[in-house]
Amino acid sequence: MRLGRTSSRLIAGIAATLATLAPSAAAHASGPTGTRSLAQVLARDGGGFDHRPNDFDILTAAVNAVLKAKPGSPVAVLADGGTALTAFLPTDRAFENLAREISGSHDLPGEKQAFTTVAALGIDTVEGVLLYHVVPGVTITRKAAVKADGAKLTTAAGSAITVQVTGRCFPRVSLRDADTDDRDPRVVKFDINKGNRQIAHGIDAVLRPADLP
């Protein structure tokens, strides 16, 4: 798949999902009561771009860029610890791989260059991609996820992703997105911020809200 040739389709797909953005559902009373937000968790690192592939510096930069350009963006829900949600967080390596595909390069870019490449798609596109990684109104732990094979999760972008679970003794969770031609992201780190209404799971690829050739 060459994203460089089809970025206009990605932008069109984002526009369609943003047009159907649905409000977040209320958290269940019996759910977690902690109110530490995922924005607080992401801000803990505080070191900016580095050479660690499994943290979330590029994601953090993308969230900050969207909120700087659009303070009223629904992405701001990540800073509202009282609102229940589940987020799937692409690692830095996930964004680096996406940037390599966008640029058509054979070389893996560094974190700063990867962010620049992704940001060049436009702030609305970046916003839509971020919202496609957020499932509002529910706190899904690893325990629940491994029992949810086939479940369709409606994202904050209005479209759905599907949970896929393989393996019995050691269940592996992946997420089927709108791009049927590319490998589905796999969960590589569970239960980030567990015990709070906002929980996250790290994934090894960026979810794609449009089917690109």
Structure at a glance:
Residues 1-29 form the signal peptide. This protein is of the alpha+beta class and 213 residues long.
List keywords for this structure.
three-stranded antiparallel beta sheet; alpha+beta; 31% helix; 7 helices; 7 strands; single chain
Mean pLDDT: 88
Shape: globular
CATH architecture: Roll
* The level-1 CATH class: Mainly Beta
Stretches where pLDDT is under 50 for at least 5 consecutive residues are: 1-6, 14-29
Q: How many DSSP H or I helices?
A: 7
Quaternary organization: single chain
Determine the strand fraction and express it as a percent band.
Answer: 15-25%
What is the number of E strands? 7
* Distance from first to last alpha carbon: 5 Å
The biggest sheet, with number of strands, parallel, antiparallel or mixed sense and barrel status, is: 4 strands, mixed
The figure for the number of domains is 1
- At the fourth level of CATH, the homologous superfamily is FAS1 domain
Order of helices and strands: HHHEHHHEHEEEEE
SS content category: alpha+beta
CATH topology: FAS1 domain
Strand order of the largest sheet: 2-1-7-6
The radius of gyration is 16 Å
Q: Helix share of residues?
A: 25-40%
